Amino acid sequence: MANDTFDLDCDEDCFTSAPLSRRTFGAASVAAASLAGINAATAQGLDVTETDVEIVTPDGTCDAVYFHPTEGKHPGVLKWTDIMGLRPVFRDMGRRLASQGYSVLVPNPFYRDGPAPLPGPDFNFATDRDVAMKLMGNIAAPGAAERDAQTFVAWLDAQGQVDSNSKMGTTGYCMGGPLTMRTAGLLPDRIGAAGSFHGGGLATDRDNSPHLLIPKMKVHYHIGIADNDDKREPEVKNILRAAFDAANVPATIKVYEGGDHGWCVPSSAVYNEAQAEAAWAALLDTFKAGLA
Question: CATH number of the domain at 12-290, out of 3.30.2020.30, 3.40.50.1820, 3.30.420.270, 1.10.10.10?
């Protein structure tokens, strides 16, 4: 990618379409059970309406899915996916969040290359890595994520189920983590709460590192760091902590011990249910604090 792009680091554990090994077969079994749990949890919340939508952006037409409680107006949330894009598991995650009283938009981040699902169910990280790098490169290109964020937030603001008197939230996973920071930094008057989980490239030595946007934010933040990411880059949490403190931006930064990169997403080969539920609770607490 060109020097003026930003980093969207990703770990192989985000990719789950490789031929089944013992590891991925076991993870798939756990994921099936956890998805049932998500649907059961949703059933205990508010009734949710789900609609497939198309959103015109400066760069094309984005396919997305929109969830909202069937009745009333609620704070809007922009949910960024991981590298595997908009797919059934992120629909389940969006539906679950909506059941807690939020109007949630989950866009296909790779719409410039085609409709979801992208990279697609046959994706194999071992052989198709260049495909993923191209997809990530297009959203990491100069201004692309910012144009998307502004368009998606404006779209949410125009929906009758979104409470315009409340600030919005944003959350993201893997490559979606830095996108939450770019959204919060770009739109501080609209984004009041954010959550990043196993996000890559949050704090780098580049002059467009996402953490440099923290002074622009007016947000409550939760940064969930994967255990193995922290072992590889232990300084990141300290850089983030210092930046949030210096800007007086309320933030919790937690390393989820035993939760490796991808641990929050039920279809991930490293899904960790206990730590995923802890991250879910932290996200809801952050949204309650920032979107009240």
Answer: 3.40.50.1820
Find the largest Cα–Cα distance for the chain: 50
Contacts (Cβ under 8 Å, ≥6 apart) of 130 = none
Cα angle: 62, vertex 78, 69; to 5 degrees? 105
Across 219-253, b (16+ Cβ under 10 Å) vs e yields bbbbbbbbbbbbeebeebbebbeebbeebebbbbb
- For 73, residues 6+ apart whose C-beta sits below 8 A from its C-beta are 103, 160, 161, 162, 163, 164
Model pLDDT for residues 7-44, shown as the tens digit of each residue: 565 555 454 433 333 333 344 444 444 454 444 445 46
Give me the count of residues in the chain. 292
pLDDT of residue 10: 57
Out of 6-10, 102-106, 110-114, 266-270, least confident range: 6-10
Q: Where are the domains of the chain?
A: 12-290
Q: In what order do the strands lie in the sheet with 220-226?
A: 48-57, 60-69, 103-107, 76-80, 168-173, 191-197, 220-226, 251-256
